[in-house]
Structures are given as structure tokens and as C-alpha cells.
Design a protein that fits this description.
- Helix 6 crosses helix 11 and helix 11 crosses helix 16.
- With about 500 residues, the protein is mainly α.
- Helix content is about 45%, strand content about 5%.
- It is globular, with a radius of gyration of 24 Å.
- The protein contains 21 helices and 7 strands.
- The chain has a 5-stranded parallel sheet, sandwiched between helices. A two-stranded antiparallel ribbon has the order 6-7.
- Helix 4 links the parallel strand 4 and strand 5.
- The protein folds into 3 domains: about 120 residues, Rossmann fold; about 180 residues, Serine Threonine Protein Phosphatase 5, Tetratricopeptide repeat (Alpha Horseshoe), CATH 1.25.40; about 170 residues, DNA Cyclobutane Dipyrimidine Photolyase, subunit A, domain 3 (Orthogonal Bundle).
- Bound molecules: flavin-adenine dinucleotide and iron/sulfur cluster.
- Iron/sulfur cluster binds next to helix 13, helix 17 and helix 18.
């Protein structure tokens, strides 16, 4: 029976059981499409990275004697629509059965469900064989619960998969070493030079230009840094384990003007395209730890595993538990427009300038830059979550809706009223100063609340608490901050409001 098997751009899993044997009656198809380049405005490195990885994957399949149909963006047969391309191929090649891997995005899942409903040949959906958890697993785990705490899910995952466990107890005696993951980097621990693959992607960049695809950010087409093949992805993992794991946990939350990546793995693109699986990453990290127990502390290893076994699987489960309504949530009723400087990096606030320029130049910012710099500022200035989602979904090479949306709308913007985060992640300039050297060379003074040179985060923070008091003051974790706010004189609160309003109304001047 002639079968057509679809592979989406984020389903490049060469270890999938589909590829264990070749079959002359099976044809695989992959398409570069306007449907995917245009559903939001993406960073150029994101589009290029996906297309380059897809092309390499198709080549790898062909060299292993699989039959492959690959449509480049400019291919004459490419209609730029997933379902029209599929329908045409099914017709042309007399396909008798259509098979596809479960999409991770709601948008594509809906499109393919509709397509198969209308199809008059057999069809079947298969697992992508990537994640530890099934899509519905979180909904079952949290059934009947009012709170969906990541920590409970994470401990259960550790037990279930026997990761860093000694019988039923956590290895080292603690479940979580978060408290020792908060060091500021002051140049003390040596950061080895970054790994870069220097891929030449000029051809894809020219094709995007010819097709007039609108993108954001910058690229050096001769030296594309991200891994775009399975082998490069494995090299990136090897590099992390060999050189960076040793300090990963310590400096996980640190930020620095001279060091963009610090000890972060930069593995999210390889993982989200499925060139690497979370299981092989965790196994490799554990193997390195076992070999170098004298050098690497458990806090570094647990800190990393928590991100992948905990946060990544949790975010995916929450997405599938809460979509599609989740995408419309706006608990705090925030309505302001995203400042223009998010698209240019043109601001005097040094923390934002660094985090945004890093994002524009590299399609990258690490977790704390996303959460406590750009996300924090967007929440303090009460930006409409739709605009924030569009920015985060476009700008990062690793941004795919199933992981971007719960992180942005939930964790960072509290737009779900606390389903993911137990309190809003907001702070004044003091947190940024504690974790980075940004404030040292900023036009604003981190300790000042008033005056032209006062750090905008300081008044925005208190103003945010004041404006959202009705919605937030009953939150147990906010009690201390509200008691401090309520001790302020009405004159001071008025001054804060005036200053914060001035910032919000003239935001692009700051
Ligand atoms: P490392 O710091 O080295 O961490 C290792 C891995 O852990 C990451 O590669 C990632 O796969 C996983 N991880 C860590 N934190 C999270 C998390 N909160 N959720 C899911 N996985 C996590 N991650 C994405 O993959 N895509 C996104 O679109 C995305 N959007 C985000 C938006 C906001 C507002 C925030 C606060 C976080 C977002 N994250 C997203 C999570 C995190 O910032 C990135 O995974 C990380 O910065 C990628 O860099 P890295 O590979 O060097 O990560
Ligand atoms: Fe950011 Fe304020 Fe520090 Fe400047 S002083 S870097 S605006 S936190």
C-alpha cells in the first residue's frame, strides 16, 4: 500500500521508529511554506535555522534510502499551504494511506484534524516519540486539583523515571537546589569560548529575500551559529557537558554585559526541532556527572535536569490542558502597546538594551533575561499580552507556541491569574542589579525612585502593585509587598503614580 508520511519542521527526530527500516511503499514529505513563515513575524535566524535543519534531515533520509519529497520555498509545485500540498501529492502519487506525527502546536493539530476528517483514504496519527510525557498526562496528574504546581509534577517525574533518585529518596537528600542557583557572575568562574558551527546559510537567506518574507533581527549568512544537523546537535550537547555543566546551576540566573550565554546550554533549538531528545540529553548529563562526581556538584546537575524534566514537560502539559482558551486570557486586563524599542533595542535602559539587542542579534536570550528583564518590564508597563506573545513567538529561534505561550502569558505575564506562576514575576531595579552588572553602566540610577535619572523599574514596580491591588492583594505570596505599599504615605503614592504614568506615556523616550 502506498503511504505518505508527513514530517513537520519541528519533527526532525532521526531516532523515530518510522526510520528503523526502509520501505519502498513509503514516501516522506517535508515542505518549506509561507503558511509557516507568515503566521507571525519571525526572527530571520529562526526561519533559516528551521529550513536548514529540514534540508539536512531530508538529505539524511535520502542517504539512508528512504523516499522523500522535499519542497523548497521556491519550488514550483509548492502551493505554500500544508493541506493543499498534501492533497496534491496524495492525488499525484495514488497514495492509499496518510500518516502523520502528532503536532505539538494547537494550530497545526487543528488543521490536520480537519484535513483527515475530509480525507477519503485511510489515515493514522503516531507519537513523535520525543517527550517523556503524553499530551494529556498533566491533565490527569492535576485532575481535581486547584493548584497546578510544577514542583509536584517534577518530583513525580523524578520518581517515575528514577532520575537522580536513591530508591524513593532524592539523590543528595534534596529535591531542589534552586536556592544555590542564584550567584552573580563577576568573572570568577572562567567561561570557555562559545561553540559555533559557522554554517553557511547564504542560499536560504537569498531565497527568503527573493520571496519578500518579512523577518526581524540580524543574521550573518556565512557564520550561522546554531546546530542544523543531528551531528552538530550532538556536538553542542557534548560541549555543554564537557565545559559548561560544571557551573550551570550556580550562574543560571546571572546576567552580564560581556557574556551573552554564560553557562547556558543553547540546546533549545536542537531540542525543539527534535534533533535531540530530552531523554538523551538527560542521560548524557547524568553520565557526565557519574564520571566527574569529584568535579561536578549535584546542584549543577539537578538545576539543569529540572529545566528539562520539570519545566519543559510541565509547560507542554499545561499548554495541552488549557488550550485553546488559554490564548485569550488577560486576568490583569492589561491593554498598553508594546514599546517600539522592543523591535530596535533603542533604549537608554541598559538591562533592556542588552536583553533586546541580544535577542535581535542572536535570536537568543536566556531564561532570566526573558523573565526578569523584558517580561518584567512588559508586565510593569501593563502591555497587552497579545502583543507580548507575538514578540516572544517571533524573536527566539526556539519559540514554538506550545512552549512560548505558557512561558509568556502564564509564567511571565500572570495573564492566567496564577495557573502557572504562584505570583507575578515583577521586581524593581534591585533584582536586576543583584543578578547582573547592567546597572553599573546605565544612564539611570538603580537606587533612585524620582528624578530624571531614576531607574524606571522602581516607580513602575510600586505603581503596578498599586494599580493591581484589587486583583493581587489576596495572593498570599504578595502579602509582604502589599503591607509595604500600604505603609506609604498618600503623597508618595501620588508621586509614584505621576512618575509611572509619565514613563508609560513616553515609553519610547526612556
Ligand atoms: P538552558 O538555560 O541551558 O536550559 C536548558 C533547557 O531547559 C532549555 O534548552 C529548555 O529546553 C529547557 N527549559 C528551561 N527553562 C524552560 C522553561 N521555562 N520552559 C520550557 N523549557 C525550559 N523556551 C523555549 O524553548 N521556547 C520558547 O519559546 C520559550 N519562551 C520563553 C518565554 C519566556 C517569557 C520565558 C521566561 C521563558 C521562555 N522559554 C522558552 C524558556 C527558556 O527561556 C529557554 O528554554 C532557554 O532560555 C533556552 O536557552 P538554553 O537552551 O540555553 O537553556
Ligand atoms: Fe535596568 Fe534600572 Fe539597572 Fe538601568 S538602573 S540597568 S534601567 S534596572
Amino acid at each position: 500500500m502506498e503511504k505518505l508520511r508527513l514530517l513537520l519542521g519541528d519533527q526532525l527526530n532521526s531516532n523515530h521508529s518510522w526510520f528503523h527500516k526502509t520501505d519502498n511503499e513509503v514516501t516522506y514529505c517535508l515542505f518549506e511554506m509561507r503558511q509557516e513563515t507568515d503566521y507571525t513575524k519571525h526572527h530571520i535566524q529562526k526561519v533559516v535555522g528551521f529550513f536548514a535543519a529540514m534540508r539536512n534531515f531530508a538529505k539524511e533520509l535520502k542517504s539512508n534510502n528512504h523516499k522523500v519529497i522535499y519542497y523548497q520555498l521556491n519550488d514550483k509545485k509548492n502551493t505554500q499551504s500544508l493541506v493543499v500540498n498534501l492533497a496534491n501529492i496524495i492525488d499525484e502519487y495514488n497514495i492509499e494511506k496518510f500518516e502523520y506525527l502528532a503536532p505539538d502546536e494547537f494550530r497545526l493539530d487543528k488543521q490536520l484534524t480537519q484535513f483527515t476528517t475530509d480525507l477519503n483514504i485511510k489515515f493514522e496519527q503516531f507519537s513523535s516519540e520525543h517527550f517523556y510525557t503524553e499530551k494529556e498526562e498533566l491533565a490527569t496528574f492535576f485532575k481535581g486539583k486547584k493548584q497546578f504546581l510544577m514542583e509536584n509534577f517534577y518530583r513525580n517525574m523524578r520518581k517515575k523515571h528514577q532520575i537522580l533518585m536513591v530508591d524513593s529518596q532524592p539523590e543528595g537528600g534534596k529535591w531542589n537546589y534552586d536556592a544555590s542557583n542564584r550567584k552573580k557572575w563577576k568573572g570568577d568562574a572562567l567561561i570557555p569560548p562559545e561553540i559555533s558551527f559557522d554554517n553557511d546559510v547564504s542560499e536560504i537567506v537569498s531565497e527568503l529575500k527573493e520571496a519578500n518574507i518579512e523577518t526581524i533581527g540580524n543574521i550573518n549568512p556565512k557564520y550561522f551559529e546554531y546546530p542544523i544537523s543531528r551531528n552538530q546537535s550532538l556536538e553542542q550537547l557534548e560541549y555543554f557537558c564537557e565545559h559548561l555543566l560544571v557551573h550551570f546551576g550556580d550562574y543560571q540566573d546571572a546576567m552580564h554585559t560581556d557574556k551573552i550565554y554564560l553557562f547556558h546550554s543553547r540546546i533549545s533549538f536542537a531540542m525543539n526541532t527534535k534533533m535531540l531528545s530530552p531523554k538523551e540529553i538527560i542521560n548524557k548529563v547524568l553520565e557526565t556527572y557519574r564520571e566527574k562526581t569529584d568535579e561536578i556538584d549535584i546542584s549543577q546537575v539537578e538545576g539543569f535536569i529540572r529545566q528539562i524534566l520539570g519545566w519543559r514537560e510541565y509547560m507542554r502539559g499545561m499548554y495541552w490542558m488549557l488550550m485553546p482558551d488559554y490564548k485569550k486570557e488577560n486576568f490583569l486586563e492589561n491593554k498598553n502597546k508594546l514599546p517600539n524599542f522592543f523591535w530596535t533595542g533603542n533604549t537608554k535602559m541598559n538591562c533592556l538594551k542588552n536583553a533586546i539587542n541580544n535577542s535581535l542579534d542572536n535570536g537568543y536570550a536566556h531564561h532570566i533575561q526573558r523573565l526578569m528583564v523584558t517580561g518584567n518590564f512588559a508586565l510593569l508597563t501593563q502591555i497587552n499580552p497579545d502583543e507580548i506573545d507575538a514578540w516572544y513567538l517571533g524573536i527566539y529561534v526556539d519559540a514554538i507556541e506550545w512552549v512560548q505561550l505558557p512561558n509568556t502569558r502564564g509564567m511571565s505575564q500572570f495573564a492566567d491569574g496564577g495557573k502557572i506562576a504562584t505570583k507575578p514575576y515583577v521586581s524593581s531595579g534591585s533584582y536586576i542589579s543583584k543578578m547582573s552588572n547592567y546597572c553599573d553602566s546605565c544612564s539611570y540610577k538603580k537606587t533612585k525612585k524620582f528624578g530624571d535619572d531614576a531607574c524606571p523599574f522602581n516607580t513602575l514596580y510600586w505603581n503596578f502593585l498599586d494599580e493591581k491591588q484589587e486583583k493581587l492583594s489576596s495572593n498570599f505570596r504578595m502579602k509582604m509587598m502589599y503591607s509595604l505599599l500600604n505603609k506609604m504615605s498618600s503623597e508618595e503614592r501620588t508621586k509614584i503614580k505621576e512618575k509611572a504614568n509619565h514613563i508609560i506615556e513616553n515609553i519610547d523616550g526612556y
